[in-house]
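In the lab's daily routine, each protein ends up as an entry in a very long ledger. A line of letters takes care of the sequence, but it says nothing directly about the fold. The three-dimensional part falls to structure tokens, numbers that each stand for a local backbone shape. The outcome of that step, for a single protein, is printed below.
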Amino acid sequence: MKQINPLIYLSILAITLSSTAFAQDERAGAPLEPTISLETVTVVATKSPQNSFDIPGMVTVIDADSPELAGHGTPKELLGDVTGVEFGGSARSNGQDIKMRGYGTEGIVVLLDGVRQKFESRHDGRFFIDSALIKSVEVVRGPGSALYGSGGLGGVVAFKTKDAGDLLAPNENMGATTTLGFQTVDDEWVVSQSAYGRTEKWDFLANVVMRESDDITLGDGLELQSEEELVSGLLKASWTLADFHTIRFSTQQYNIDAKEPNNPDLGNDPTSLTDKTIESNTTRLAYEFNDPSNSLVNIKAQIYRVETDKEEEILAPSAVHAVGDVTTNNLETYGFNIENQSRFGEGTNLAQIITIGGEMYNEELDGADTGSMSGEADHYPDAEADYWGVFIQDEMVLNTQAGEFLIISALRYDAYESEDATGNSSDESRLSPKIGITYKPNDWLRLFSSYAQAFRAPNMEELYPTGIHFAI
């Protein structure tokens, strides 16, 4: 594995010291800003801002910058204390396996800035983002297909990355930040460098995170083999081109090179040791129109591309592979989604928010294995799939003398079709209904009930595998 030159750390530290001094000079003499405490607000659960205590469901919103989460480096450290969420697998970065309501990652919708993360590769994880880039996480427990389609059996986990405004004080327009860290459990060094700024119409943020770690010391004193070198980057920019019209662009890159067992969930297995490289890129271009005086039109739309590439080189002979065999797996996704919200009866005893939206995306899976006779990977078939869905949701707030009622109903129709390189195919469609009611007799009590259905379309690895998965 490549080693990161220690001079990189020193160089970034020097940059930070100078940029910090600049920021302090700019703020010298400025009055301290008051600390403002706001109620926890969820957007993912209903696609409109709602107090998480009011909605008819179970939602947790996590502030990744809270003091109790200082130093977190993995999704497991960030989400491990959320009620109803469990993590399996090992402590390796590639072995992060989330479970919610009895479902694993294949039954949970994972979003990064609103973009689906659907890479599934046998025992490997699905969280290809460094937690240093995360602003917040919303965890919605329970069926989520009525708004998010396939995969929402156990719920939705939505990561939101930081913007320039999250790092700048109200009277600041430019800044830079460096974070240095070290932990002894795996001798991990981490350095994170950010630069950010804003004008009246523009804002931008650029961030690079580097982590390098060695074997992990377990609670019983044994060591879990895990050498990792990770580089992650984020570039974001937004442009307000006219009143209430905003264009947003972001690209996030995640590269990890690890020496670990083929199945990172295992302990130390010298017979399945691999040099594993995973590269993932998520790029999105979004448009928003949000005019507070226009109650009928509030549009959000985005196009995106996600590509994840995994390569494993065998370092120890096994019953299936010889030393030097290389297996690759590539999943490329192109997608588009759009939604509009209309508000009715604001300020009256009967107010409504109606959201209408649609989504479509294409996935293409390619696999190869130098150790097979055909050169193809049995468990990573060459295949392609198309998905599309439309939905409507009505959020109704009814104020009565007996208290306030929040009634949320939604219905979504989804369809998918897939085909592999040999002509095998599959197609299906599904309706996903949802209804929930919250009764609020006073400021401190909430009674709620909800019913929802969810589904998961089988992925291409499940539909079109060949060969033998386990060899004895």
User: Anything to note?
Assistant: The chain has five helices and 24 strands.
